[in-house]
Amino acid sequence: MKRAVRREALSRERILQAALAIVDREGLEAVSMRRVGEELGVEAMSLYNHVANKAAIFDGIFETVLAQMPPVERVAGWQEALRERAHGLRSTLRAHPNVVPIFATRAAVTPASIAYVEEGLEVLRTAGFSAEDALSAFQVVLAFVVGHALASYAPTKPDEDSRPAYERLSEEAFPRMREAAQVLASYDIEEEFKFGLEAMLAGIEVRTSQKGRRKRG
To answer: pLDDT-based confidence at 1, cuts 50/70/90?
Structure first.
């Protein structure tokens, strides 16, 4: 007599992991309640006991990817804290390029995702930022990280891809672009990210220092 195989209980975590696996393999457009159910070997209707709808799955994927970020080390200042979080998020998005559009179009919704924002804002408020400046600083750094990841890693479909031929441009009409084409031949996109992040952090530091001096004056 054959022994019945015990199926692992369905849970929100299992659903989100299955959805993330689908996105990693096939892209965001492949996600549906039916498709996730197939991935788990269950009827789509059974998913509704754990996730409300497709939007909740996307919110959960957001949360699941954030949970994979490297642990944040204790650092001395707000710049190092934001720098570490920025590089951690970038490396995590690089591992899940199909997920990047979710971060570009959705806000943190679940408590676990909101906790990530809470921690960043706490760093800035503790450093003396006003509530408004803390939110602005956090948001612009996050937007830079996600936007740069979108430009760097988000895949395109073969029939939608275009390759610029800057080296074929007229040198007389486009001398700087021809010059840039030579640089691009050995260009490091990761160094570009570091350049942009450091420039942004330095700019935030200057702006907050200037505001502090105006208040004291």
So the answer is: very low
Write the DSSP string, 153-183: H----GGG-----GGGS-TTT-HHHHHHHHH
Confidence of residue 209 (pLDDT cuts 50, 70, 90): confident
> What are the structure tokens assigned to 75, written together?
């650092």
Residue 11 in 3-state DSSP? coil
Task: For each of the domains in the chain, give its residue range(s) and CATH number, in order of start.
Answer: 75-155+166-216 (1.10.357.10)
Give the ranges where the chain is alpha helix by DSSP (H): 12-26, 33-40, 54-66, 78-95, 100-105, 111-126, 131-153, 175-184, 189-216
pTM recorded for the entire structure: 0.88
- Predicted local confidence at residue 164, as pLDDT: 82
